[in-house]
Amino acid sequence: xxxxxxxxxxxxxxxxxSASELMPLVYAELRRLAGNKMRQEATxxxxxxxxxxxEAFLRLVGDAAIEWDGRSHFFAAAAEAMRRILIExxxxxxxxxxGGQARRHPISDADAIADADNLDDLxxxxxxxxxxxxxxxxxxxxxxxxxxxxxxxxxxxxxxxVSVRTVTRNWAFVRAWLGREMKSGEKE
Length: 188
Prior knowledge:
Layout: H1 3-12, H2 18-39, H3 49-62, H4 71-97, H5 119-135, H6 137-148, H7 153-160, H8 164-187
Helix pairs in contact: 1-2, 2-3, 2-4, 3-4, 5-6, 5-8, 6-7, 6-8, 7-8
C-alpha cells in the first residue's frame, strides 16, 4: 500500500491531521495536473495553477464523506474538482462580463417615454411611433394604450388579448426601442 493510499484511508476514518501529510506527497502531481488543465484554458485566465491546486485539495480533503478507493481515485477526483473550479471561474467571469454585477432597475408603471408637456418630445414620439407601427403594429398599439390612453399593464393586456407577462416584456422592449429611436432623432 502506498503512502498516499494509507493517508487517504486515515482521512476516511476521520483522522484530519493526515491531510497535512498528504499535501507534500501529492503536490507535485497535482501541480502537473493543474498545469495541464490551465494550458487547455483560453488566454486571459486569471486563475493560477497553484491556486487551482490548493482549491481542489481543500475540496477533496474537506469532504469527509468521500470514500477513497486508492491513489488513482484521488487523482481522478482531483482532475474533476479542477475542471469544476475552472468552469465556476469561467461562469463567474462571463457573468461579470455580461453585466452580472450591474444593479437592476425595475421599470415602473409611472415611467413615461416622453414628457407630454414638451411638444418636441411629443412630435419625436409620434414620428418614432409611426416608424414602429410600420414594422410592429401590436407594439405601437401598446404604446398608444399605455402612454396616450393611460391604461395599466393589466388593462393593456386585456385590451390586446394577451397575457400580462407578454405586455410587461413588450413594454420594456418598446420603451427601450423608442428611447433609442428618439435619441437618434435628436442627433439629426
